[in-house]
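Trying the structure run again after the queue cleared.
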Amino acid sequence: MTSAPSRRAHSFNAAAAQYAAHRPSYPPALFDAVENLAGRPLAGARVLDVGAGTGIATALLTERGAHVVAVEPGDGMGREFRRALPDVPLVRGDGDHLPFADGSADFITYAQAWHWTDQERSAPEALRVLRPGGALALWWNITDLTIPWLAAQGTRIARCLGHDDEARHTADRASELTKALDFRKGRVRWSRRIPLDSHLANVGSHSAFLVLGQERTAAFLADERTELLKVFPDGVIEENYVVDLLVATRHAA
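Done. Tokens:
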């Protein structure tokens, strides 16, 4: 049988175009923070972007001057990636079995992806592939629930799903790394203004809704449209995020 986490992880492949079109990007300040916490620049660095998905983070890392190789296991996500970034190397694989030589990367990055790995495998793999002094950077866009309308929406989502699906990815997500690596945390706040339809498509692109079933998801999003038009009658939504960032540096030999 396919496990629930595996089913959710693979659900993105059927919705890859929706994911690419509507998921949020990341602010420039995030990559400034990655460099500051790692103590080295991205420009000129060899970066493995693992769980690259449709290439949202890969594109930004490339713009910073990094030499990026993307790693993505999914067929649908890989096709969207190739459409968006035809010139960036894309390797089929995952963080539990990195198809790279020992000590071959300056950075390994996971944007919204570390939680899909088996950390008992992905942590040693990161250590193996990183060069001494290289850095593992993990980050997640987390909905800012200090914003009242987002907190209210979070309550409605939890009621629909029967649980709170908003991840709280903090240092305990990488606790097995702390003994072997220097480990630092950062947070970056940002927001974006988008049409209501794009916001609803973003919500619907999360794995919990992708596996919920089309009928129940459509019903929730229809109700959500009604609720949000009360707050944003012009149909333009301001989404607020806090990027949780974890950077671990491999000790020099």
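The mean pLDDT is 89. Worth checking whether this holds up in the mutant runs.
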